[in-house]
Amino acid sequence: MAMEAHDIEALLRVSFPDARITITDLAGDGNHYAAEVIDESFRGLNRVQQQRAVYAALKGKMDGPAGELHALALTTKAPD
C-alpha cells in the first residue's frame, strides 16, 4: 500500500512539530519519496543520529517488505 506525502508529513510532525518539512514524491508512485527535515532538535547530533530520529518518527512504515513506504531519501539538519 502506497503512502501520500501528507501522511508522511503528519507522522513526522508528531515528533518534530516545529520542523520545516518538505516531502517530494520522486517517482509518482507513492513509494519513493525525498524528505527534508530541518529541526532544532538535530543540533549537536551527527547525520546518522538525525536520520535515526526521523525513521523512528515514521513508526515502522518503512519496516521490511510489508512496509507502506519503500524508499525515503533523507536530508536532515539543524536550522542555520
From TrEMBL:
This is BolA family transcriptional regulator. InterPro entries: BolA (IPR002634), BolA-like_sf (IPR036065), BolA/IbaG_stress_morph_reg (IPR050961). Pfam families: BolA. Belongs to the BolA/IbaG family. It comes from the Bacteria. SUPFAM superfamilies: BolA-like. It comes from Paracoccus hibiscisoli.
